[in-house]
């Protein structure tokens, strides 16, 4: 499932490609991917300019000039492609937004969705999300207050969207490795220094992943060399049996709360 870095990468690239452009056409191939009648969706979206694209947690919000908002959550298996009809991947498209000869294809939205809301409705949809971990106002003191009296494991707490927004399975493992903490450690067992290190690792890993373009397997457009660069730069995730870059130990795969989990027993304590 795309996490914060993937959606931030999409936001940046799509802003460059379609920000300020007008949606010339709409095709709905799967009605379950939207939340209103297809004709209502088309009426409210077609011929509208995209005024801004915003990311909140693992969501993207496409703000339209009429005050409407398209709220996207790709969920497991969802992705996007921007290009011409000839460039379109040979995949089933659930929703298509057209911009002249170029189209934004929403693919794999079996669990994901592109919902139409007012700005206030979209705000209500996202109100239960925790703080943005890369927000300039999210300080070490903010984090220490957040984890105070928390008893859950490092891994399960990091992926809790009501605790912090945007972190999922992959980056929780990367963060725990960088902080040199076993993902099964309990938060209330951590020292204050370890909690501060965890905060610093959250911000470092997410910023690093954004720098490399996240982990998506498919490019957003033909010639896209940014998307998916983190796949070649993971520390532990997906590297079971390989050597740890820090201590030379062996990375193992385990399960924590039914989630596949990767860590190094040699240097994560």
CATH class of the largest domain: Mainly Alpha
Largest sheet: 4 strands, antiparallel
Structural class: alpha+beta
**Strand content bin:** 15-25%
Q: State the helical fraction.
A: 25-40%
Q: CA-to-CA gap between the ends?
A: 28 Å
Order of helices and strands: HEHEEEEEEEHHHHHEE
Number of strands: 10
So how many helices? Answer: 7
Residue windows where pLDDT falls under 50 for at least 5 positions: none
Strands of the widest sheet, in order across it, are 1-6-7-5
Count of individual domains: 2
Indicate the overall shape. globular
Rg of Cα set? 20 Å
> How much is the average pLDDT?
97
CATH architecture of the largest domain: Orthogonal Bundle
CATH topology of the largest domain: Helicase, Ruva Protein, domain 3
SSE topology sketch:
Elements (H helix, E strand, L loop, with lengths): L3 H15 L6 E4 L9 H8 L4 E7 L2 E6 L3 E6 L5 E5 L9 E7 L2 E6 L5 E6 H7 L14 H8 L6 H5 L10 H10 L13 H21 L38 E6 L2 E6 L5
Antiparallel strand pairs: 1-6, 2-3, 3-4, 4-8, 5-7, 6-7, 9-10
Helix pairs in contact: 1-7, 4-7, 6-7
Characterise this structure:
With about 270 residues, the protein is an alpha+beta fold. About 30% of the residues lie in helices and about 20% in strands. Strands 1-6-7-5 form a 4-stranded antiparallel sheet. Strands 2-3-4-8 form a 4-stranded antiparallel sheet. A two-stranded antiparallel ribbon has the order 9-10. The two termini are about 30 Å apart. Keywords: DNA damage, DNA repair, DNA-binding, Glycosidase, Hydrolase, Lyase, Metal-binding, Multifunctional enzyme, Zinc, Zinc-finger. Its EC number is 3.2.2.23, 4.2.99.18.
């Amino acid at each position: 499932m795309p996490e914060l870095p993937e959606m931030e990468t999409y936001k940046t690239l799509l802003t460059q490609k379609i920000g300020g452009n007008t949606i010339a056409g709409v095709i709905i191939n799967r009605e379950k991917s939207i939340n209103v009648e297809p004709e209502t969706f088309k009426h409210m979206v077609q011929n509208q300019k995209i005024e801004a694209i915003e990311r909140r947690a693992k969501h993207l919000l496409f703000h339209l000039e009429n005050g409407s908002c398209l709220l996207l959550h790709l969920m497991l298996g969802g992705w996007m492609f921007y290009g011409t009809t000839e460039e379109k991947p040979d995949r089933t498209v659930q929703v298509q937004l057209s911009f002249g000869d170029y189209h934004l294809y929403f693919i794999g939205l079996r669990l994901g969705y592109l919902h139409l809301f007012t700005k206030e409705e979209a705000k209500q949809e996202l109100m239960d999300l925790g703080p943005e971990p890369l927000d300039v106002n999210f300080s070490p003191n903010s984090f220490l207050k957040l984890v105070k009296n928390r008893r859950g494991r490092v891994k399960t707490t990091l992926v809790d969207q009501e605790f912090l927004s945007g972190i999922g399975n992959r980056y929780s493992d990367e963060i725990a490795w960088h902080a040199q903490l076993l993902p099964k450690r309990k938060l209330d067992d951590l020292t204050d220094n370890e909690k501060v290190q965890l905060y610093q690792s959250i911000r470092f890993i997410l910023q690093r992943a954004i720098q490399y373009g996240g982990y998506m397997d498919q490019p957003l457009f033909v010639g896209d060399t940014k998307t998916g660069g983190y796949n070649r730069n993971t520390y532990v995730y997906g590297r079971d049996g390989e050597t740890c870059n820090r201590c030379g130990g062996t990375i193992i795969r385990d399960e924590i709360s039914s989630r596949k989990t990767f860590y190094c027993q040699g240097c994560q304590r």
